[in-house]
Write a structure and sequence with these properties.
The chain is of the alpha/beta class. The protein has 2 domains: about 5-45 and about 270-360, Aspartate Aminotransferase, domain 1 (Alpha-Beta Complex); about 45-265, Aspartate Aminotransferase, domain 2 (3-Layer(aba) Sandwich). About 40% of the residues lie in helices and about 15% in strands. The protein is built from 14 helices and 13 strands. It has helices at about 5-10, 20-25, 45-55, 65-75, 90-100, 115-125, 140-145, 170-175, 195, 240-245, 255-265, 270-290, 315-320, 345-360, and strands at about 30-35, 85, 105-110, 130-135, 150-160, 185-190, 215-220, 235, 295-300, 305-310, 325, 330, 340. A hairpin with an 8-residue loop joins strand 12 (about 330) and strand 13 (about 340). Helix 5 packs parallel to helix 6 (about 115-125), helix 5 crosses helix 10 and helix 12 (about 270-290) runs parallel beside helix 14 (about 345-360). It starts with a helix and ends with a helix. About 45% of the residues are buried. Bound molecules: pyridoxal-5'-phosphate.
C-alpha cells in the first residue's frame, strides 16, 4: 500500500469512553460521563419536535446551503448571509479552513496543549505545526505572534480553549492582531462562547469581523445547545473567506435533522438560558466541593474544570472509572497531574465529588 505520509504522522484521536463501554468493561450498572464537555440535559421539547418533523423527509438530501438556519443566524449575528459557513460540527470548519488556506509545508501556529483537532487536521494537510507552550493554563499570545513567519497561514486561538479552559484577554488579542500580516488567517474557536461571554475581559471575536478580511470565528451547537450527537457548527468570516471555506466543503455536510434542530434550539432561548444558569451554578458547586476536599483546580470559562490531582491523573481517572464516573485523563495533552471534569447534572456532580472523596 502506498500511503499519504501525513496520515501516518497522526496519532488517532481517543475520545472519552462511551457509557455503554464502561458498563460492559467493569460490569457496572450505573455509569455517568463527565468527560467530553457535553451538555448533560436533553434537547428542548421544541428541538425534539423539530427533529421528529425533519425525520419524515430524510429520503431527500439536506439543503446544502442551510438556508433557514443561515437567515436566522445572519439576523442574530448581524452578518450578511454570505459570511456564514456550516459544518458537520465546528471540527469540520477547522478542516475546511486548513484545506482552503494551507499547502503542504506551510505553517500553522497553535498553543500547546490545545484542542487536538487543530493538530490532527493540520498534520493531515501536511502543515508544519508550530506549537507555542501555554503559560500555566493561559495563552502566551506575545510568543504566538513571534512564532508567525512568512510561512504561517493560520493561527488557532481557542476563545476559550479546551483543555485549558481559559481565554486570552481582549487587550492581549488586540495587541496580537496589531501589525499581524493581513494574509495570516486568525481562527477564533468559540465553541464555549455562551459560557464565556459574560466573563470579565472576554472579547467576542465576532466583533472583529468588521473591516478585517482574515478572521474566522467558529461556533457550535455541540456544547450549550446539547446537539453534540447531531454534529453541527458554523463560522462567520469576511465574504471572500467564507466563499473559500465553502469551496472546501462537502456538498451535503450538514444533515437535515441537524439543521432543523439547530434552528429550533436558537428559537428556544428561554430553555437554554435556564440550562446555562443551572450549569454555571453547578460549576460553582463543583468548585466549592473541590475546595472542601483541598484540591487545587482551574475553573474554565467553559462547562469544565481542570482538577489538579496530587499524583497521576491517569491513575485517578482509571479509579474513578471503576466507580462508574468517566472523567478525562489529561495525559494525552501532557497535563499529567490534571483530570478534566465536565459539569454534569446536580446528581452527577454530587456523585463525582463523593467518588473523589473516597479516592482521597
Ligand atoms: C467541543 C469543541 C469544539 C466543537 O466541536 P464540534 O465539532 O462542534 O462538536 C470545537 N472546539 C473546541 C475547543 C471544543 O472543545
Amino acid at each position: 500500500m502506498k500511503i499519504n505520509r501525513n496520515i501516518l504522522k497522526i496519532k488517532p484521536y481517543v475520545g472519552g469512553k462511551p457509557i455503554a463501554e464502561v458498563k460492559r468493561e467493569f460490569g457496572l450498572a450505573r455509569v455517568i460521563k463527565l468527560a467530553s464537555n457535553e451538555n448533560p440535559f436533553p434537547p428542548s421539547p421544541g428541538v425534539l419536535k423539530a427533529m421528529a418533523a425533519a425525520a419524515r423527509d430524510v429520503n431527500r438530501y439536506p439543503d446544502g446551503s442551510c438556508y433557514a438556519l443561515r437567515q436566522e443566524l445572519s439576523r442574530r449575528l448581524k452578518v450578511a448571509p454570505d459570511q456564514l459557513v456550516f459544518g458537520c460540527g465546528s471540527d469540520e470548519i477547522i478542516v475546511m479552513a486548513l484545506r482552503a488556506f494551507v499547502n503542504e509545508g506551510d505553517a500553522v501556529v497553535m498553543a500547546k496543549p490545545s484542542f487536538l483537532v487543530y493538530s490532527i487536521a493540520s498534520t493531515a494537510v501536511g502543515a508544519t505545526l508550530v506549537e507555542v507552550p501555554l503559560k500555566g493554563l493561559s495563552y502566551d499570545l506575545a510568543a504566538m505572534k513571534k512564532a508567525v513567519t512568512a510561512k504561517t497561514r493560520i493561527v488557532f486561538i481557542g476563545n476559550p480553549d479546551n483543555p485549558a479552559g481559559t481565554f486570552p484577554s481582549g487587550d492581549a488579542i488586540a495587541a496580537f492582531l496589531k501589525g499581524l500580516p493581513a494574509d495570516v488567517i486568525v481562527f477564533f474557536d468559540e465553541a464555549y462562547f455562551e459560557f464565556a461571554r459574560d466573563e470579565k475581559d472576554y472579547l467576542d471575536a465576532m466583533t472583529l469581523l468588521k473591516g478585517r478580511g482574515n478572521i474566522i470565528v467558529a461556533r457550535t451547537f455541540s456544547k450549550l445547545f446539547g446537539l453534540a450527537g447531531l454534529r453541527i457548527g458554523y463560522a462567520a468570516a469576511s465574504a471572500p473567506v467564507a466563499d473559500l471555506l465553502n469551496r472546501a466543503r462537502e456538498p451535503f455536510n450538514v444533515t437535515s435533522i441537524a439543521q432543523a434542530a439547530a434552528l429550533a434550539a436558537l428559537k428556544d432561548e428561554a430553555y437554554y438560558t435556564r440550562i446555562l444558569k443551572i450549569l454555571k451554578r453547578e460549576r460553582d458547586g463543583l468548585c466549592a466541593g473541590l475546595e472542601r476536599l483541598g484540591l487545587a483546580y482551574s475553573r474554565g470559562a467553559t462547562n469544565f474544570i481542570q482538577v489538579r490531582w496530587p499524583g497521576s491523573g491517569t491513575d485517578a481517572a482509571l479509579k474513578l472509572m471503576k466507580k462508574g464516573v468517566i472523567v478525562r485523563d489529561m495525559s494525552a495533552w501532557g497535563l499529567k497531574d490534571y483530570i478534566r471534569v465536565t459539569v454534569g447534572t446536580p446528581a452527577e456532580n454530587k456523585r463525582f465529588l463523593r467518588s473523589l472523596k473516597e479516592l482521597l
